[in-house]
Write a structure and sequence with these properties.
61% helix, Gp35, 3-stranded antiparallel sheet, disordered C terminus, binds zinc ion, mainly alpha, 9 helices, 3 strands
Amino acid sequence: MDKDIVPGLLAAIDQYFIETNANSKELKRLVELQKSGKADYKEVNELAIEIGKNMSAALKKYVNAESLPDEKFYFNIANRLINKSLKTNFGIVTGYSSDVQKSLNEQANLHLKAQVPEFNQEKAKGLIEKLVHAETFDDVAWLLDEPIVTFTQSIVDDSIQKNIEFQSKAGLKPRITRTLVGKGCDWCRNLAGSYLYSEAPDEIYQRHERDRCIVNYHPGDGRKQDVWSKDWR
Ligand SMILES: [Zn+2]
């Protein structure tokens, strides 16, 4: 059996990723906004895009036809590389996201804990299977590009869903908005808008590749609504 190439690749990817993040002005800006209590899910989405791009760049730098045995992505290699990379992004995005949720809750005077979603293993598996089922690496190299960013953004969407469901169960009436960035495609234009949690379309938490729509919600809005409806009665 040949030498296991995965530990070496992972170490190189990790080092490059950490350096790129450390030099990112965008990440610095987003962390400062969060520390001063000015970040919401718009910033979480921006962080996910930046982290996703940096991880994609690190993967593309070290994983290529030459670095893989037989120029193929064997399951044993793809599974460990991709899972580890996506879980790293999951840790960073959910860390930032729970800090943001915590301060949004505090600003709305809600004594609720920030909720963290599960790592979406099914989605990760789907990506790994596509990588493994190609004849050669070059056929699937593009999967290390935008799909890594899309996966990372989906962590934000999962975080919103988890928190909004939790707050709804706590008796609040959270509103969720989905805003287009640029013109958007037909599917996105159709989804854009502001909804009560209970009336939001199921697809509101979904996105296609290169979909930069901003999904957002403020717990405070739900609280205000609750107060209004009581006053009304
Ligand atoms: Zn679209």
